Structures
1.
Amino acid sequence: MPREKFEEIKAFAGNKETPCLIVDLDKIEEQFDSLQKGMPFAKIYYAVKANPLDDVVKLLVEKGSCFDIASVYELNQVLALGATPDRVSYGNTIKKAKDIAYAYEKGVRLFATDSENDLYKLAQNAPGSKVFFRILTDGSGADWPLSRKFGAHPDTIYKLIIMAKGLGLVPYGVSFHVGSQQRDLGQWDHAISTCKYLFDAVAEKGIKLKMINLGGGFPSKYIYPTVGPDVYGTEITRYLKEDFGEDLPEILLEPGRYMAGDAGVLVSEVVLVSRKSEYNQYRWVYLDVGKFGGLIETLDESIKYPIYVEKTGLTQEVILAGPTCDSMDILYEQEKYELPLTLEEGDRVYIFTTGAYTQSYSSIYFNGFPPLAAYILPRGSHKEK
Ligand SMILES: *Cc1c(COP(=O)(O)O)cnc(C)c1O
């Protein structure tokens, strides 16, 4: 984050009660534009769950983005904020029949599936809709793998594609998700090859698939860097062209983390600094935000947020924890963050790259702590470039 931008965020945070999340819409706009530039042929379906704030959704509606929704609640939100149903994909493979019927009634005609029973529900409640089929990936290489739960083996997907046609649906394409914060570009290569195999296999049965949904997985900037977004764009384009030639199928992207992660700064405060014994090497630093206040992705220390404090000088490794009375509310114990020895109660702590998967994950009044507050940084108050 550029220095001036951080100064602006700090000034805006002012005396606001902490913890709170400050969201920079300029950054979201920049991410949208750079992803679109990297893969100009692709249609972006923002994964709403990453950051469902109305202002974020509204901005993306204005930018012409499409939306990947997982529930009728997200559907209602994006429609209310101006997205038309032809810009919505119901990307959750786990849905109630009545929710499918509701989405269909609202005009949604694009659905994900990965099982026979879901396909029956779609045929009955969303007749004639376009369906895409999610293949299983193993999520290796990802900081936050989420793939085991979703998708099916390509052989099963093959059968589902054939079945879908028989049920009066339109078998439209294939999707996958390589796992969130995916560091290994080869995962896309592998998954795209599987798509190609399925395209060819069902073509022999007279079914012409038209679309590949490359899912999410595009990275944000946490403490261990990944290659830049431009490299993701170039490499993925190359994999696509290797398998499909110049005449690419319709390509969908479902970025969540990439779009919102870098756009958030969580402002927190030190509640307590302590040592477990006089000779214990480590100080415990307790913040006013923890796993239940929005930082659940520190589970198994998977996501490692960059953390910044104002004080400088001699630093020492610490254990970082949250404020609640659940003993799992420790942020980092294995990964050692170094913080100044002079750090004390009341000092502000800035947690970067918290624009995605934080506020919407924060609990409702666990230990009485309210859900994480979020503020939108006023736009245009500061001109970069
Ligand atoms: C969560 C999710 C995404 C977004 O993933 P990121 O790794 O955050 O980009 C995309 N598609 C689907 C179906 C999802 O469930």
2.
Amino acid sequence: MLQPTISDALAARRVLAGQLPPTPMWNYPALDATAGASVLVKHENVQPTGAFKVRGGLNLLASLGAEERRTGIVGYSTGNHAQSLAFAARRHGVPCVIVMPVDPNPCKADAVRALGAELIEAGADMGEAAEHARRLAEERGMRLVSAADEPALVAGVATAYLEMFEQAPDLEIVVVPVGGGSGAAAACLVAEALAPRCEVIAVQAAASPAAHDSWRAGRLLTRPNGTRAEGLATGAGFALTQQLMGPRLADFLLVDDDRIGEAQWVLMRDAHTLAEGAGAAGLAALLAHPERFAGRRVGVVCTGANASEHELRSRLRLAGPA
Ligand SMILES: *Cc1c(COP(=O)(O)O)cnc(C)c1O
């Protein structure tokens, strides 16, 4: 598979110009005080689909040939990749089928249907959903879109990091939540070209450590997949993103789900920001490893906002009465 380059990221920016405005990146003194670092939050939670993945989806749809546009695409996802593909497919007038593991986050499932995609629930987890999607794509002659092994997705997602280093060229560390790894791979690609002294640090949920363990081992591994943070819930490493992260990533941290819940609450309190679990995982890494970040200028990507109602209610209960 061809690795995307910084030129592909720049080309993706031209594709996305006029479709998605740059997202803001803000500093919040209250959050700095809590984290003990100088934190800039990159607000991908304000994307029209509620997550950064729409950048990749729009870029991928723009890259399809005439035959693929006619027959359509099949994606598998716990939610945000699905919304991204459905959103982009609708923009481009391309048929779109999404396979989700049975009993998905209802807010994400409803959003996919509302965007006009055909939603199929199949499989107990992402691995089984992916297998179902693979068979379906073959049966219907549609283009299967991987959750991460897609150069056009990574190049599209890289536009977020082009923006970040323009908004704050002096970032010392960028912290990126990881599921399949498209975000962290894109961050590595852009940092290498534009901010070679900036460290990229990836974060995954301790209950779903496949990308983390794959990166540490230097080969693709399969791991249990138990996190509640859907965006981080993958059970296997992906070849393309692992290759891109390989030598470029400075570190890969794990955080547990309770810490992620705490970070969701801190983002609400200190940054007036609604994040889903995966979207708060970057901040969770700062809270879990304060010594690693103390006094540094850190870009934290708030990757998404698509928390279910149940998740929101339990976060607020967790915070308790003031
Ligand atoms: C998909 C997703 C992630 C993980 O991104 P990858 O590119 O799969 O590593 C993190 N946060 C949110 C909100 C997501 O939707």
